[in-house]
Amino acid sequence: MNPETYATLYGPARPAPRNSRGETAVGLLAAVLWLLTLASLGWLTFLVGMVTLWGLADGMSWGEARSLVLPYALTVVGGAAALLAVAFAPRVRRLAPLTRLLLTGALAFPAPTGLALWTWFQVG
After folding, report:
1. CA distances (Å), origin 17, targets 75, 94, 99
2. What is the pLDDT of residues 48-80, one digit of tens each?
3. Which residue spans traverse the membrane (predicted)?
4. Where are the domains of the chain?
5. Phi and psi (nearest 5°) for 12?
6. What DSSP character marks residue 11?
7. Cβ pair 55, 68 in contact under 8 A
8. Lower CB count within 10 Å: N or C terminus of the chain?
9. Which of these, 94, 118, 98, lies nearest to 33 by C-alpha position?
């Protein structure tokens, strides 16, 4: 539609006011949750890889190495699929993008972070 026609019919366009303070807080919290979750997954991936490499260096067969890596990889892929299913559920899709990121981050955060902290204190 022509902007002049719109202004003639409805008056000047007035953008809706934005609550930037609330959006900033939600976005920052979502970023922190996802950063901690991805750092935890990185640590767990490093541990699985190192255990597999040490085992291979010590004479472990490829089948045994695969039995270490495959369950971990399937768990990560399954968790990602579950988070995608939640993120694209009809009621969740209606949320604002930052709110959706915060929700999925809050769902993804506890399991890998708790396991990473447990392994950190067990290994260290």
Report:
1. 43, 19, 18
2. 999 999 999 999 999 999 998 999 999 999 999
3. 28-57, 69-89, 101-121
4. 21-118
5. -65, 145
6. -
7. yes
8. C
9. 98
Tokens coding 80: 């990602």
Q: Tokens 């039995």: give the residue.
A: 67
CB within 8 Å of 107: residues ≥ 6 apart: 83, 86
CA distance 123 to 100: 35
pLDDT digits 0-9 by tens, 88-114 = 999 999 999 999 999 999 999 999 999
Amino acid at 20: S
Residue 85: how many CB atoms within 10 A of its CB?
Answer: 10
Nearest Cα neighbor of 108 from 120, 116, 119 is 116
For 72-80, the CB contacts below 8 A with 24+ separation are: 72/44, 72/45, 72/48, 76/41, 79/108, 79/111, 79/112
Distance CA 8, CA 112 (A): 56
The 10s digit of each residue's pLDDT in 13-46 is 676 666 677 788 999 999 999 999 999 999 999 9
- Report pTM: 0.77
